[in-house]
Amino acid sequence: MAEFAVSRAPQKITTLGLGSCVGASIFDPLVKVGGMIHIMLPYSSMALKSENPAKFADTGLPLLVERLEQLGASRSRMFMKIVGGAEMFKIDGPDDRLRIGARNIEAVESICQEMSLPIVARSVGGNTGKSIVLNLEDGSVQIRMISGIIVI
Amino acid sequence: MIRLEDLSHLQLDALKEVGNIGAGHAATALSQILLEKVDMTVPHVSIMPLSQVDQVMGGPEQVVSGIFMRVFGNAPGKIVFLFAEDEAVSLADSVIRSNLGAQTDCDFRESALKEIANIMTGAYLYALTRLTGFNLLPSVPALANDMAGAIINTALLDLGAVGDYALLIQTQFSLISRKINGHFFLVPDPDSLELILNALGVGTGWKK
């Protein structure tokens, strides 16, 4: 949680047990370089203190793109897949803090639009936990849930 | 605001004692519902990086039943119960006192588990109220059967806004007659920690 990783084929990158967090995978198919970030919260301005930019969508995504460029990926070829942002607990009544999943998804989508990163696939919302594996051979993302496995 | 990394041994011991007394009340409550002996461990107070919190119960992909409650009042926070999924079923059945068989998505069972969490939390918070003089009330419980990582991360999310560490006061309950281990976490909201420490007489003046 609140971490990121970059690598190249034939490696795989994985993050386990996403709940309200969003797992964003970015891939450059030409050089087969990609990365993944496990975003906890939408905006770093929400924070009183944090030494970890990977925790937030607005600071984490630019950081991930920068590291991918250092590995030879090109911004113009990158595409993205997003998973997570679930509402794990259904609680009646207005407790905004528990709707953080939806706010994480909104933030990631609007930041990607600003950065001109196309989101080509998504498996977001709902109320199930997910683990994801990004395969850097082809940019596919395998999603494991307790109900089964899907690939996007 | 107090930084979790800066808590002294004395302050950690005070928090452990809070956990001990609260969990003692909660174990007694559970024992009275089940009419059998409930054991509990000495509470474990841990301060860990947020990125490692999902390791606390057999790894992030372990399937668990999690019950989540917010604590409202003078020192708000969160309470999370975690049970291995099959043990949660067994616990619910011992409260209902019948065996419902293999109907896994049973509302009745979920309701029983929520009620157990509710009663234990009530007992826990009552003890904490007596110790601190605070007024503390639990929300209605919410339940999820899913990966431990997804459940714990969700419960801790707003801590991420204030720091990179989480404080967990963790107690384990077990029943003698059958294998049921429950994990109980009290996660004070960041601002509440200092209030609790002050109320216990080990406020910031006691640092180190």
From TrEMBL, chain A:
Gene Ontology biological-process annotations: chemotaxis
E.C. number(s) listed in UniProt: 3.5.1.44
First-level EC class: hydrolase
Catalytic activity: L-glutaminyl-[protein] + H2O = L-glutamyl-[protein] + NH4(+)
Molecular function in Gene Ontology: protein-glutamine glutaminase activity
Transmembrane stretches, start-end: none
Keyword Hydrolase attached: yes
Keywords, in A-Z order: Chemotaxis, Hydrolase
Domain of life: Bacteria
One matching Pfam family: CheD
Entry keyword Hydrolase: yes
Function: Probably deamidates glutamine residues to glutamate on methyl-accepting chemotaxis receptors (MCPs), playing an important role in chemotaxis.
Family: Belongs to the CheD family.
Protein name: Probable chemoreceptor glutamine deamidase CheD
Organism: Hydrogenispora ethanolica
Gene designation: cheD
UniProtKB/TrEMBL annotation, chain B:
SUPFAM superfamilies in the cross-refs: CheC-like (SSF103039)
UniProt KW Nucleotidyltransferase keyword: no
Pfam family, one: CheC
A Gene Ontology molecular function term of the record: hydrolase activity
Domain of life assignment: Bacteria
BP terms from Gene Ontology: chemotaxis
Keyword Transport among UniProt keywords: no
The entry's keywords: Chemotaxis, Hydrolase
CheC-like protein domain sequence ranges: 11-47, 110-143
UniProt-listed InterPro entries: CheC, CheC-like_sf, CheZ_family_phosphatases
Name of the protein this chain belongs to: Chemotaxis protein CheC
Source organism (scientific name): Hydrogenispora ethanolica
